[in-house]
Predict the structure.
Amino acid sequence: MMLDHLGEDAASKSLTSAFESALADGIATPDLKGSATTAEFASEVLSRLK
């Protein structure tokens, strides 16, 4: 992940955890067999970072 490359290990772990959590809860875009739009998925990931 780019954040790892930039030395932002904590941020990388937080972001990875947020999107893995969203996917585990069934929130995904159609390319991952879900129905969320990109904006909906991004919003969900952001909400999990706070």
